[in-house]
Amino acid sequence: MFPPEFDYRRADDVAAAVDLLAAHDDAAVIAGGHSLLPAMKRGDAAPSTVVDVSDVDAMAGIERDEGGVRVGAATRYVEAAESEALATRAPVLAEAAGAVGDVQIRNRGTVGGNLAAADRGADLPAAALAADATAHLRGPDGERAVDADDFFAPGGATAVADDEVLTALWVPDASDAGSAYVRRTHPATGYALVGVAAVVRTEAGTVTDARLAANGVCERGVRLPAAEAKLADAPADGGTIERAAAAAGDGVDDEFVGDPTASGEFRAHLLGTQVEAALEKALSATGGAA
Amino acid sequence: MSDDTPTAPDGGREAGLAATAEDDAEGADGLVGERVARREDRALLTGNAEFTDDLADPQTTHLAFVRSDVAHADVRSVNTDAAAATDGVLAVYTWDDLVAADVPGLLPVSDGRLDCAVPGHPVLASDRVRYQGQPVAAVVAEDRYAARDGVERVAVEYDERGAVVDPREAASEDAPTVFDDAPDNVALTADLGDAAATDEAFADADRVVSVDLENNRLIPSALEPRAALARYDAGDEELTVEMTSQSPHGHRRKLSHTLGLPERRIRVIAPDVGGGFGHKGHHHPGEAAAAFAAMQLDRPVAWTATRSGNYLAGAHGRDHRTTAELAVDDDGTIRGLRADTHAAVGGYALGGGAAMPAGYGRLLAAQYEIPAIHCRTRCVFTTTAPIHSYRGAGRPEAIYVTERLVATAARELDLDPAELRRRNQIESFPHETAVGATYDSGDYRSALSALEDELGDEPRGGERDDDGRLRGVGLACYVESTGGGFESGVVRVLPDGGVRVYAGTHSHGQGHGTTYAQIVADELGVDYDEVAVVEGDTERIPQGTGTFGSRSAITGGNAVAESAQSVRERAREFAAHELDCDPEAVDYADGTFAGPGGETLPFADIADLAYGWGVPEGMEPGLEATTFYEQDDTAYTFGAHAACVAVDPDTGAVEIERYVAVDDCGERINPTVVEGQIEGGVAQGIGQARYERATYGADGDLQTDSMLNYAVPRAGHLPDVETSAHVTPTPTNDLNVKGIGEAGTVAAPPATVNAVVDALAPLGVAHVDMPLTNERVWRAVEDARR
């Protein structure tokens, strides 16, 4: 397919990107282009102008800061996957970035693009939710911060308004937690058929804090409230993992969606197996393993 | 090459050849049989290959189709006004324009075996559409974007009729009728074998084993989609169509039919082509519409299918529903086989596509001595993309039925699956089966033993591994009918001694440039690098047939070999004149002719003589030969494949731990090329077995309309294919070769399915339909556990 005609503008800084978005109707932000360009070719997106933010310095790079790690939105997957700061403080994000697509995609696609496009099978939404990350947005009215829990909207939309740019993701320090991201891969797309992220803290063999989230199963990344509840203050053992896995889909309000390769029902089943796998890995990483 | 090769039954030229068989330049030191590196790969790997879409120049205009977005409807109106007024749009064509230009506009229906008279597929819909994606109008514009804009502005009104997408449903009484001439939607009912004898065999047998199978509808996914670039020279009144073709002469004929233009005014060129698989042997509206537009506009017109356009338009492959039974005695002796198949044809009879499934049953005997077979096949119109041959073309469908039956019988009789096969394998050749196929040669038990040796003792039968996965081994013993028809081969020696070879086949991955050069270099005794191979141009090559049906090595290979032999003997005659002796006294080795007195003459000097002033008395100038080689008898390739799988019952995940293939295609001209064909075929077969299935909704909408929802196997999905050669030279041709292009697609689906069913045997799973997606495997486990 051939995309409709569009203009291309490169932004030198965040302010310029925001100005360009304001100046053009139906403009869209582009960085790696791995979500936007296929959508344009399919006819699912038809921006009049694409605003390229891949050269914006303020949106690049990964830095430790007070209490966490700041990941610039234009950071490539490969940088996130190989980041020492993320490996130490927010390994679930590094692991999810390393699970995206293939080498070529990881060399080109970006963390911010993954979250802002929020494709159903994208790997970072679950990790961002489980890591309790915060998205930083900049628009004509200045900057605002949105918790991951409020970032993904039903139907696959996000909190990023048409005139806003996602500039960075901030992730709190989880170096005291165990975490994991596991996935089953869709054979056609290479996206996650089901991906589960877990960030778990234990104390003396008891789970003190657990965040679980999934992508691939619903139109947006979702928390897994019932599974989290099964973990709360429970012994960090196999029985708890089993109970959490059995409850994996409970309390998820979004519909489980399917396609010719895998129905929603099958994805709901796989959600359980992946919760089990993620928890086994995450709990063993806490050292208080089952 | 064996010494007991019978000479081809062909007149005087052969007599001359027989006399020189001893000093045939081909021998222990020859190139045939060697792993010569494919000379095609350099251009392909460095991006220097030229595909049809690379050939457009600035003068070229671009054609895009308006495709039906409904499956089955009367076309009430087509409004092209807004499209025609779009910037950059040069023309918008509908059926009425074809009629006005007095162009027939229908793709040929090439098979008279149909039980009904149905019209061919119109290049643009006349009054009705019969599948989603059928071209309704064509927009030609200065560039692809303007063409796309024009397409969006064509307004079509439809009066919808009912859709029917399943061939069994389509043959039922209340199904909507696709063609009035076939009120029951059945294009053809074919009976193979002897129904009464089969009934008798079933009555006498100890037991009957049955299966109900779907052979899933597949979408060809060649790297390069179909494309055409048409140019019309109004001065010479000649049309040139460069296109993605497996069969340039075949396409010339078909274009002639569709355009109402004599063949002498059409030239078809197939440049580099990125994969064929049958899809590029058929005639589709694209090349005909581009040609029509080029003649109307007097401008070059390019058409390149988009991936989604290719997916919608087909032709797709397979799509059978089969109930089959095997009559078998308790000791494993097979007494009879019965199959009842509904095969989808799609919305049109495309060439011979509608009748193609009628002959699929000819391979149902597979490798076994089965005294009685009966197969009834109904070829049924459905409101879906047309079906036509797709790599394997009936052979995978047949072998899948028999190998699933045999595996099921082994399980029900509690016999080792290899042992059951061994007890029934055909041992003497030629062998005529109960469905009329005559197998030329083989050694089936030996190939199966070789497979078992390679396989060793793999865990099977649902044995659990350390990860709790169930292990299974699946076998598939196959035969594949290969070759057929005639092929042209020209060997032309140039004045400097260099050689150009022209063949009517076409290479789009098969490596003819390498293998034909090996054959000709051996036959002529010249250096391999001196031999260039040319294919894919109706203007440069005598009438040819093309590449499909695992035919090129047999037909094209023998054609160029015979021409090379003729040239060698002509060269010997020239040498004899020069050396002043009888031709029989001239020895030829290593590119040098030697007379009885020891005088020598290099081959290159002969060429100079042949084209010099005043050739020797009694001889004609020139050093070239043309052969139209006809293959009299089908060559039956065979082999035994095995898949070893590990199945996770909790997720349905299937891992193919090993894939072992023993294949016998007679002599191997180039073992590396043969292995490449096997590995590629196995990849496609595993694609069918594990991932691919084109699905339509009840409304006739194609649900798998892109690579996002139609899964083709990626490199990471595939096991290493462990190939081993088994060589039984065929007596059907002088090169002793059989075809190998489709073997993998035949063997891999039953091997894979048998393996997974074997792994799930302890759970009581008797069958899982292809593709064995994780979900289907998981559901089979869940259903069995209930």
Q: How is this structure best summarized?
A:
Chain A is α+β, with helices and mostly antiparallel strands and 290 residues long. Chain A is 34% helix and 25% strand.
How would you describe what is shown here?
The complex is a heterodimer of chains A (290) and B (786). Chain A is an alpha+beta fold and 290 residues long. Chain A folds into three domains: 7-52, 2-Layer Sandwich (Uridine Diphospho-n-acetylenolpyruvylglucosamine Reductase, domain 2); 57-172, Uridine Diphospho-n-acetylenolpyruvylglucosamine Reductase, domain 3 (2-Layer Sandwich), CATH 3.30.465; 178-286, CO dehydrogenase flavoprotein, C-terminal domain (Enolase-like, domain 1, 2-Layer Sandwich), CATH 3.30.390. In chain A, 34% of the residues lie in helices and 25% in strands. In chain A, a hairpin with a 2-residue loop joins strand 4 and strand 5 (68-72). In chain A, helix 5 runs antiparallel to helix 8, helix 10 packs antiparallel against helix 11 (238-246) and helix 11 (238-246) packs antiparallel against helix 12 (264-286). Chain B has a seven-stranded mixed sheet, with helices on both faces. Chain B has a five-stranded mixed sheet with strand order 7-15-14-13-8, with helices on both faces. Chain B folds into three domains: 17-48 and 484-628, Aldehyde Oxidoreductase, domain 4; 58-161 and 223-275 and 280-313, Aldehyde Oxidoreductase, domain 3, CATH 3.90.1170; 320-483 and 634-785, Aldehyde oxidase/xanthine dehydrogenase, molybdopterin binding domain (Aldehyde Oxidoreductase, domain 4), CATH 3.30.365. Chain B is globular. Classes of the chains: A alpha+beta (290), B alpha+beta (786).
